[in-house]
Amino acid sequence: MAPIIEVRNLTKQFGKGKERVTAVDAVSFAIEPGETVCLVGESGCGKSTTGRMVAGLLEATSGEVLFEGRNIKQLSSDAFRRYRQTVQIIHQDPYSSLNPTQTIRDILTAPLLRHHKAKNRAAAEARALEILEVVDLTPARDVIAKYPHQLSGGQRQRVAVARALTVDPKFIVADEAVSMVDVSIRVSILTMLARLKKEFDVTFLFITHDLALAKYFAWEGRITVMYLGRIVEDGPTQRLITDPRHPYTQALLSAVPEADPELAQHKRQIELRGAEIPSLLALPPGCTFHPRCPYFVPGQCDVAAPPLEAIPEGGRVACPVRRQEHVSLLV
Amino acid sequence: MGVIQSVWHWLATTLKLMTYNKAGFIGFLATTAILIVCLIGPFFIPLDTQTKLDQIYQPPSAEHWFGTDHQGRDIFSQIVHGGKDVIYVAAIAAFLSTFIAVTFGTLAAFAGGKIDGGIMGVTDIILTIPQFPLLAVLAAFITFDNITYLGLFLGALSWPALLRAVRSQALSLKERDFVEAARALDLGTGHIVFRELVPNMMTYIVISFTLALTAAVYTQVGLVLLGLVPVSSSNWGVMISLAWTQGAIFFRDAMWRIMMPILAIALFQLSVITMTRSLELAFNPRLRTMV
Amino acid sequence: MAKSKLDWQTGDANDRQAPLSLENVHVAYNTRRGKVRAIRGVTIDLHAGESLALIGESGSGKSTLGLAIVRLLPDTAETSPGVITYRRDGREVNVLQLKPGELRAFRWSECAMVFQAALNAFNPVLKVWAQALDTAKAHGWHDKEAVRRRLVELLEFVQLDPKRVIDAYPHELSGGMRQRVLIALALLLNPQILILDEPTTALDIITQRTIIKLLRELKEEQHFTMIFISHDLAIAAELADRVATMYAGRVVELGTSDDIFYRPRHPYTLGLIRAVPTVTGGFEQLFSIPGSPPDLVDLPKGCKFHPRCAFASDRCKQEEPELEEVSPGHTAACWHWHEVEAELQRNPLHRGALNLTDVIAVDVEVA
What we know:
CATH class of the largest domain in chain A: Alpha Beta
Number of domains of chain B: 1
Strand content of chain B: under 5%
Distance between the termini of chain A: 44 Å
CATH topology of the largest domain in chain A: Rossmann fold
Oligomer: heterotrimer
Structural class of chain B: mainly alpha
CATH architecture of the largest domain in chain A: 3-Layer(aba) Sandwich
Low-confidence stretches of chain B: none
CATH superfamily of chain B: MetI-like
Order of helices and strands of chain A: EEEHEEHEHHHHEHEHEEHHHEE
CATH superfamily of the largest domain in chain A: P-loop containing nucleotide triphosphate hydrolases
Largest sheet of chain B: none
Low-confidence stretches of chain A: none
Shape of chain A: globular
Number of strands of chain B: 0
Number of helices of chain A: 11
Largest sheet of chain A: 8 strands, mixed
Radius of gyration of chain B: 22 Å
CATH topology of chain B: MetI-like fold
Number of helices of chain B: 13
Mean pLDDT of chain B: 84
Helix content of chain B: over 70%
């Protein structure tokens, strides 16, 4: 079976002339149906831009997005419409992703009616109520009449998920979908998403800056780490979390604050050579991590961008220097 | 039935929200009162056209609430009859300019590229034309014997500033995630413009409409005062213009004749401007559901 | 006077008095919807040289409490009843009764607040140096050279290059640099207490780590007395000596960091810990707390957590529990803390270094 989504050499540049920046630089990966993939990185690494290109909301500068093996730019208008509906996005901020002037009823019935998923208003409302039950927003009859601001952050995020479900998607890009939700409620939303994965065969591209969440959500799946527009490492979650190979992944994992005092005491402190992330306007040559990397090899790392190469433990690493070295994150 | 009920509910909510700002609500009441007087008043209060030489330039009294003019005619009846045209012309101008600004401003923001460039080009050109002199010159060629044309004309020239503002509002709204979600759901441009963007600009549009209304009142009165628009009917502007050309500003006795239309205009403008404070509340979706 | 304050204040070991005591502090806002009861009777002593973390979700009152201590609440806020006592060198004042002039001195020279490093924490048209000078001048410190020396010293302490930063506008600095500058500015007048509101929120992970390191230094080397306010449990685990869990305007549990993370006795604290994953720990099942935080205008009767609590009984619906000692120095406000203890024995938290052995065993340490 073809991957549901594949991207090849996907590149996105913004701006013109001297202001031109490359937000995403020749990124390639494939996602099989049913897989859960997390795209992880700090702000400005290009993870959200990649997500929006995958969802067809942003046009790539070069490279291609393949949906079920076919380039989305070459789809017939019918096929494109199917892609458009099959791939949905859930945004980070539930305060901005729901129109404040519409009731939940308006929000959910509009796509149902538009795409003939319901014959009339009454049928659309009935379907909307069903979907609200699916995302655990009960009693659905009360919720449907409300405006977004009458709901809590967690409830709004469920509405955003419900809205995506109206068009029966098979692939959902969840862009920092729980990072603005209260800690105590986050897990229930992740659990709900995981249930959708099972019950409705939805494949997830989960974009987050939070490695702990990525680890939890994609424990059986894969994590892809991006830095300044490039993939630096990817692989099965359990390998990547316990045995990270790229110095940036290691730095990231060792930097994550831990909600456990003893773990916090025992974490290895990786000293970087530079604290600040370089600007996208003035990217360093070669490996973009080299000015900060503790394992920098002059004459090698600052010359050519290292290729992503497979390692036997699973996944790919863009670091010829450290690809085969294991580093413990605890001391 | 349901429709009537929901309209009634909408009106009740709007009214209730408007009371939240006292000054705004007073402005709303005053505006309503002026509208009633100017639109319905003429049917009950006949226009006093009879020359009464023994009653020239009288101060306000029980008989003549606003005093009398140079022919002894009642100023109050003239004020009552003179508001309708002013408000009519201003309303037409405000409707037209708001309509152009909202439609093309949103379109420019949403479509971007060449359409945006074209619309903004035209806007900037019209924005740089000095309106008042243009109207003055045009008035020499066109006779505004039909006041509807005058309103359309004023409206056709006064939209650019509002269009720029609407466009920048729409540009920022366009970046909001709910618009992107609507694109992802393939809901169509019409839905995005009229269901996602415009409702979120309602407060802004309503307030812009009232501001356009007040601006049109001034432009219009200015044109009339300068005698650039033919004197066709009783009208607050015409009243000032006549009083002025007949030298009313030089007699203390004539003060009421020139002051009353000025006061009428000022009061109308003040009421409308103050009312916007309440409109801001009434069109805020967050407040609407809290009532 | 300013010069004498230039040196770091080291915690006086003989001074056993708490520099800050809150006693039955209440904060309420009057709104159109009704009275928002943001803080409802918080009593807590801040010990000299300790770092205390206030953790809780949105609406728990943690930020309001921070603002109440430095009296930065909006005018609509009511702060009675309640006493906030501040002590230094054997003298004490009630912060809630300070006059405007005294308040300004208190805010910078005694108890400084560091806000989240958003741009709006700065005056956008002033360079860093001008902001510092303004602050110093407002406190009667007019020796420009001395202010500059002090600022350079502080910028170096927060690991910034003074030459680069001192003449920069806030928008020219990255988020991490802004947070450092804010910390340096807070230290300018050598306060006794530092309150940090979400010090690492909105920063990138690696930057967060550098800020945590910096704050650890302040804590371990300078023995600063600090209050951390955060929704992020990790900040408490990384930095705090003691942790106070807040819910619906009250402290519901207070104890050492180890007490809170390994021996929680309040169901809400337990719920929070079970909801937060770790990265380097083993994989564990997470649980969320059902329901949402209560409406502060219309609070439930009894224990405010009972609608979300698995241990709730009829008593919880009627009577609100007070903090009671569950072990020395560890208090919790729950009628059923014994049951929470029993639950933890049945289903232990897979936390702490002991549980790391399986992870460490996999590692072959490269020496």
